Structure formats: C-alpha cells, structure tokens
Amino acid sequence: MINGPVWDETLLVRNGVFPSILAIGDSWFWYPENNLAIPLHRILNRQHSHVMLVRGHNGAEAIEYAAGPVRAQIEQDLDPATGYGKTLKAVFLSGGGNDLAGKEDLPALLLPDCAAAGDPVACLRGGQPDELFHTVSQALLSVVELVERKLPGTPVFIHGYDYACPNGKGFLGLGQWLQYPLDQCQVARSLQQQVVNELIDRFRVVLEETCAQAPTLHLVDGRNTLGRDEWANELHPTVAGFNRLGKCWAPALEAAGLA
Fold first, then answer.
1. Is 168 a member of any domain?
2. What domain range is 215 assigned to?
C-alpha cells in the first residue's frame, strides 16, 4: 500500500497504481525527514485518493526543467500514450532556489564589494536579479506550456519561497548557500537578511507575472509563514516548517477540486 509520495517509481508497478499528481522539484520535494511533498500528499488525501510521483532531485535547478534528462523524464511522464498522462490531474513545480543560492550563483547577482551599501538594492549588479529570474520563469513556463500541449486544462501549481535566514547553517557538509557568498561580497551582516528578502520578493513578482501568461498556472505564496526557529538551515525548513508551508497550498488545491 502506498501511503505517501512516491520517489521510487517501482512502487507504482508493485502496487499496480498510477499517479494522479506529478511533483517536479528540487530538495523542497526531496529533503529527508520531511519536505513539501509529504504534507501536500496528506492534504490531498484527506477526502480524496491521490498518488503523487516525485521527479527531479536534490539540488535541481529550474533550468533543468527546460532541457536535459529531467526535461526528458517530464515529457515522458506527461505523455498520455507512453507515460501517465491519462491519470494525471495536476502538476506541482518547485524550483528557483538553487538557481540563486550558493557560493557561485549568489555572487553573480551581487556587486563584488558591497561594503558601502546602505540598502539591499545597492548590493545588486546591474540587471540582476531580473535577468536570472527571467531565465527561471521561462524554464517553469516551458513546463506549463508542455502540460497544456499534452494535457490541456490540467492545472500546474508553483510556489515562491519564504524569507530564508542567512545564518551559515548547512546540512551534512553541504551549505555556503547564503551567508558565505554574502560575506564574500562584503555585505554587512546587518544587511544580509534584507538582501535575501529583496531577492525573495522580486522572485515573487516574477512568478506573478509568469502566472499572468498562463491561465492554468497557480501560485502559492509562502512568505511570512515561518519563524526563524522553523528553518533547519539556510535553505530548508524544519519538519514543522514544511508542514506549515504545506497548509499554504490547501486553499488553492481545494479551489481546484483536488483536496
């Protein structure tokens, strides 16, 4: 019996079932102990019966959804003849965080010397983060367009991010996502949270603009949901934090008749 999201496709074959939800994402759908897919599965199955197949991988960038192996898998999954298109009722998308966070990605958005910056906008390179977020939004939109071609009218749900804390906390040796690159660009510690918030808010605006281009695309806002103690590290909420973020999806899923 399947009682949670499926990351191992062989479980579907073993149980003779097909997915009704295709969740494509980064670590927010793959993080151990808890992640966003787990509370979403619970919400979906309170009054209905859904099987959720999760694709993507930890560390996935949104651009992988537009080309390469992840894209090829998505195309196969959505196909009504050779994949799961006949049973899918919705697609969930999680992406964008890995495209901006990290010791290589984040500095590309910031001036190399922000020591004199008095506000977060003064830390940003010309044209950023708009250029990056445009690339991310186009990758996400390419999935929406693919869904519409293969499964017309099928809703796609995406999410922004809450205000992650640049505190230097990593996970199992991984990290240097926010505080380290901010330090490298000489952003004052007192300004670092404001810089992160600025990026999160701008990403939200871009996602809103993306949704305006696709009537089947729905955006879930998770900002101002978590307290600082509900972040396990710089990029991932705690178990309770992911559960609280999952609740933000409930109204949209209920409105779509999925939950």
1. no
2. 10-97+130-163+204-255
